Structures are given as structure tokens and as C-alpha cells.
Amino acid sequence: MKAATYSSTVFLIAFTLFAIYISIAEAIANPKATDTTGASAPATQPTSKPAFVVQIDNFMFKPKELEIAVGDTVTWRNADDVPHTATSKDDPQTFDSGPLDTDDKYSFTFSKPGKYTYYCKVHPHMTGVVVVK
């Protein structure tokens, strides 16, 4: 066998062994990626709903207005140094977070369509709207 052919053959064998090694290492590191037949598992889409967050910052709700779908959950997070609330103006109240200290969170899932206006009980000038379609 000529030296050039021998070198090409050795390279091809080494490359093939390296590819097999990588495949085995991947299967060990991620065992759920293959089924019992060794076939790759199909890619799946995330099943969780999008996260809707209203940041309470600088005495404002951000965003001030939020549009979501029925069944979506909104989380209010207080980033201010003082307590705030997220309280619906509906009668009777649809939701009320109670006092949220710095970094506290409150979540509410909207089950009916409508326009939900809310405010901060501590600072009534702070208002926001969630539109549920």
C-alpha cells in the first residue's frame, strides 16, 4: 500500500472512531435523547405558556397595559424599595396581591375575558390594565 493511501485510511479510521466516541458520550450524557432502538427522539416544543410579568418599578406598573389570552397568568414583581399592591378595581375585587415588599411576587390566572383595571392601594395614582381576550 502506498504511503498516501495508508495515511488516508488511517485518518478515515481515526475520524470514524472519534465520531463513534462522540455519539456514545452524547448518549451517556443525555440518555433521554434516544429511545431503546437507538433512534433519536423527536424534538419537542415547550408546553408551558408564555410568562407575563408586570414589573413594579419607580412607582409605575411596567407595562402599564398588558394583553393576554384567557387562561394566562400574570405575575407582578415589586422592584421598588417600598411596598406596593396589585389590586383590581372590580366590584367585587377579582384579585388583590396584598402588600408586596421588594422582590416579592404575586401571580393571578385570568379565567374570563374582559378589561381588568388595577391599582396600588398604597399609591392609588399607580394604575394598570390587563386586557384578556
Number of strands: 8
Biggest sheet: strands, sense, closure? 4 strands, mixed
In N-to-C order, the SSE pattern is: HEEEEEEEE
The CATH superfamily of the largest domain is: Cupredoxins -  blue copper proteins
Oligomer: single chain
Rg over C-alpha atoms, rounded to the nearest angstrom: 28 Å
Residue runs with pLDDT of under 50 for 5 or more positions:
32-42
Instruction: Count up the helices.
Output: 1
Word description of this protein:
The chain has 133 residues and is α/β, with parallel strands linked by helices. It folds into 2 domains: 3-33; 52-132, Immunoglobulin-like, CATH 2.60.40.420. The protein contains 1 helix and 8 strands. The chain has one helix at residues 3-29; strands spanning 52-57, 60-62, 65-68, 73-78, 87-88, 105-109, 114-119, 127-132. The strands form 2 sheets. It has a 4-stranded mixed beta sheet, with no helix packed on it. It has a 4-stranded mixed beta sheet with strand order 3-8-7-5, with no helix packed on it. The longest helix is centred in the N-terminal third of the chain and has 27 residues, at 3-29. It is elongated. Residues 32-42 have low confidence and may be disordered.
